[in-house]
Amino acid sequence: MRRPVAASGGRAALAWLAPASLFVPLAGALLWHPAWNPVALSAAPGAIAGVLLAATLAALERPAASGPLGLGTLALLPAVVWLGAAPAAWLAALAAVLAELVRRLLERWWRDAPLPERRRGSRVAAQASLAGLGALGAGGVWIAWRGDAADGLAAPVAFAALAYATPGLAFELASRRRRDETARELLRGLAPLAGELPGFAFGGLVLAVDAVAGRPLAAAWLAAAALLAGEAARRELGADAARRSLAAAVHVSHAGASLMASTSELARLARRIFAECETIVPFTYAHLELASPESGSASFWAGPGGELEEGEPDPPAYPPALPGFHRREPWRILDHHLLAEREQQARLRLWCDGRRLPPNAEASLAALVPQMSSSLAGALLAREAATDRLTGTATRRALERRLREAFDEARELGRPLAVVLCDLDHFKRINDTHGHAVGDRALQAAARVLAGPSRGGDFCARYGGEEFVLVLEATDGEAALEIAERLRRRIEQLALDAGGERLELTMSFGVAAFPALAVRSAEELVELADGALYTAKRLGRNLALLDLGGGRMRTGKGGEVEVAEPPPVRPPVFFA
Predict the structure, then answer these.
(1) Among 196, 466, 473, 485, the one annotated catalytic
(2) What is the Cα–Cα distance from 40 to 43, expressed in whole angstroms?
């Protein structure tokens, strides 16, 4: 498995502080240029405070995980016109920092606010510097265009928006660590940069109101827009935090019951564990490694697509790029051991993007681990009780329950149900001639063939000795006979090495289906399939027969057989 190589903290800090080293001297020098700072700032403290407050409130709303200012860009062009381009750049940088601090306060207030990531100090400085550089670019375009309202506002607003986005776009392209990204992946990562551009449209509208109705009304429009954006952000963060908190509490409290409701199959258990973990922890890859002395070992994993596969995952070195400006860092791997009676039964690992990990996710997952351990222990015990240790097929007790449920469902829904009894030919002779070890290998080889072509609703169980039973749901007699004939040919192709001697295997099959045969219970259906198997044995073995009723049976090759006398019925030992 590939392991990520993390960059050193100093190198990462220098990379993120590079925009600051460009913005601070440039914006500081332009403060002395009359074209960039035409208004005496000491004479306009109200305007400065108002624009800064509007930009900060609006910056709390970041559509499509956009850059540092989000909708705070709606205050940039009014700030350029009312205060000057250089002061507007400093206000943009300060608004980005203040918005980040406010969002952190909201995170603490709600404790589970779904912020996209926790930004480090160096990164906050870089984001603020990028906002300031973008504001300088927009201001430069506005100065070059001279912002003459008589010439129209659409073109200067559009070009100012593009100039604002240019520094962020350049920085994003320069800081990409993955050089193997496709064009589509790159565009997907850069697309949210456009999330800040709609703010310029409203900023242009504010300037239009300023030109037509005066600055007081324009300032009122700006304040109203900022308040609406801030309230939208507050409602979104609060509502989502409440939903996450409630969902985490519900899932932690009911996770054990939900896990116990799953089937005893290990693959389904792994899928259920992953599903329960996903409701608490946003992971990208998951791996469950099972180790039980009785049940053996198994390994399952799921990736971004959610499909369950056997084996171990091989994730890339870094998580996928988040939209907009986000640092690249290695996976955050949550590793837990699931114990039963102080013995390790499984190991659960989750590959998480640390930037998306909610604050209480790890604690919620830790609270779920004991319930998962208990559920896993119960599932393994149930699996051991329901699985034949030699062949890996189901036991007779599991067969009883499954067949009764399948028959009741078939009768209620009016759909077909087929039962196939399978018997390995001359098994006693194999044991007597070659020994029980070879006989066990023969049973295991036959079981692999019978249980292999499962279609989801099929069920294979060891009936006893050398006999097996197949339960084929939603399958009529003709289709079941075709399946039995196909299995018979596959068994016929098997050959075992018995002490240097080639040992060939054959198997006989008896098929009975409901509702083609008028039976009133699952026991009667098994008895008719057993009768067809008895007839196949009597006719020479290595044969598949379907009971058609009325003493007639059809062979797997399409012929028909008349039964002169009904086959003997075995004592009812199948169902206790």
Answers:
(1) 466
(2) 6
